[in-house]
Design a protein that fits this description.
Layout: E1 6-12, H1 14-113, H2 117-135, H3 143-153, H4 159-162, H5 166-179, H6 184-187, H7 189-204, H8 211-305, H9 309-327, H10 331-375, E2 379-385, E3 390-395, E4 401-408, E5 414-421, H11 438-449, E6 457-459, E7 463-464
Antiparallel strand pairs: 1-5, 1-6, 1-7, 2-3, 3-4, 4-5
Length: 488
Amino acid sequence: MSGSPKYSSVRVGAAYAQREEAERRRRAEQRRARERRRAAERARLAQEAAARRERARAETERRRAEVARKEAEVAARRTAERDTRLAQARAEQSRADERGLDEVWELIAEAQRSGARAETGSLERQLAELRGLAARGEQLGDAVEELRGRAVNLRPTAAGDRTDDSAAVLAGLERRFSATGPDGAALDADGHRRCTDLLDQLRAAAGPGRQVRFEALLGTVEHALARHAATVSEAREATVRQARAEQEREAAEAARRERAEAAEAAERERAEAVEAALELALAEAAERFDVVRPAAEGVLDTAADLGDPGLADEIGDALRAVTEALTARSATEALRAVADLEGRLPEAEDRLDELELAYQRRRDLVEALRDAMTGEGFAFEGGEDQGGSFRLHFTRPTGATYETTVASEDDGTPVLVYHVDGEPDVTLYAPQDEAVCDTTEALLERVHEALGGDDGFVPGELTWDGKPPPGTRGKSLPGGTSGRWTTP
């Protein structure tokens, strides 16, 4: 009947341990060489990434300089256009001032012809001053109209002398009316119409015997002409101001559009720079990932095959973190995840080498055990590689079956576990409450002695649940069997 599993820890022989240590050193040197190559590749990639970033920075600076140059050109053009508009407005105002000064000169000359020379002296001096200001490009403002009013006011003083020649007076008034310009009717329609009517009346009163009527109308006509001239001048100035305001509004609108376009261009440039930086960082992360991914995937696959799910999960999680970050286009997270994987890989490869050494140790033990058991008459029925252990099946000519598991403890020490079925001495309790399996134990000890010794494996004491202490074979065990055996 089936008995309790039998256990034996196995140590390696001295010669085997030396060979294994030499293999461990060889693997360590290979790991260091791989890490040096990976470090060199990372350094090369870092240099290339830095060069790409520098080129991108230079291109960004070039674009910014180009944008700044264009903005400066636009600003210069706006300034030039504004200066041109201002110069045109000043020129138009200067021409208007000149026309006004010419009209004032006509009034002063008429007053002089009418005998008011003494009173016109100050007017002539002020007129000369205003002409000097106008020649220097200065704006005269209301000074022209003020001087015009003073010149018109001289008319009543000289009326007795200047109306002797009604035709001359009428001609002077008509010149003043014409001096308002062809746009006078449009700029002051009511004033233009009133002046036209009054001049018609004055012209009718210029005939013989109508001197009184002429004198009575003269002041009204002069006042209407002065008012019309002032209104036209003000309208012209208002038109100039309106045109200037319109030009300034258009210029401001153009400047606003240009600023908006510049802001949009700057935002596009910023977005393009951010996207370019993202692409560079993602490319750097992907390139660094390509350096370590084959080795990391090798660790993942081999660790799972060799029965270390913890190591496989650790590296699998690190690989997924990089892949997910790259898929999500999260450059910061991708670079962090790659750096984490790079940091984990050397220790993982070290652990993997120990797993492979332990696996090879188990395989060698399997081969030695198979040879030893077949040498004792067992028939090998096959086995399974279970990753962290091997399971072997043997039979004896008597029909007894031995299922042997070759596993490793946490520190890599091999351990043998036997499940025996069909041996007559394998029973958990003897009829007299004695735990015995002397024949099977002796058989397995002979197998252990054939495992190679110093050049192979040296199994320890074979034990099982209920094995009596040394010196008590054949005696009753107090309280039945002992507690469950644990690996020392």
